[in-house]
Amino acid sequence: MILVTVGTQKFPFNRLLKKVDDLIDQRVITDTVMGQTGHSDYRLQNYSGREFFGEEEFYSLINQCEILITHGGIGTITKGLLLKKKVIIVPRRKEYGEHIDNHQREIGERFSEMGYAVLCESPDRLEVALEEIHKMERKDFRLSWFHSAGFVRKYLSAAEAERL
Do 16 and 130 contact (CB within 8 A), yes or no? Predict the structure, then answer.
């Protein structure tokens, strides 16, 4: 099963949801797919889903899936990695009105650089990302305070510099 999640931000992420629909329609994706659509107004055509799931149900869905396709939310990414899932990160983008800035891309880059996930810069590249995730050797993820604190510190410094 593939779980697609766009998070809880009050912005749509229609591009990702529609691309998954297109790939199912083209038979690129043949697995069962479940979607969490959030505040998107796109209506799923070829797979099931809901706007939001309760915490326990969401955790259960992540636990059941083989591949987690997610926005760049650090909480969802780390849940997937801790549950040993293959994670594809498709960051929301400011220029499409999907977020207030492009920090999700930076988060995705970092997890990708460390070899934990595949960064998919745009939903248009999702087919390639699916090929990459199937070839990727899974690396055990350990949530350590040192690495997390360093990552957060680096991100906050960069964000502060942008504001100046």
Answer: no
Q: How far apart are CA 143 and CA 57, in angstroms?
A: 22
pLDDT by residue (tens digit) across 53-77? 999 999 999 999 999 999 988 889 9
Please state the φ and ψ torsions of residue 127, each to the nearest 5 degrees: -60, -45
The whole-angstrom separation of Cα 104 and Cα 122 is 12
Q: Could you tell me the pTM of the whole model?
A: 0.86
Tokens 């055509």, residue located: 45
Residues 128-135: contacts with CB within 8 Å, 24+ apart?
129/88, 129/90, 130/23, 130/28, 130/29, 130/67, 130/88, 133/67, 133/86, 133/87, 133/88, 134/86
Phi-psi region of 34 (alpha: psi -120 to 50; beta: other; left: phi over 0): beta
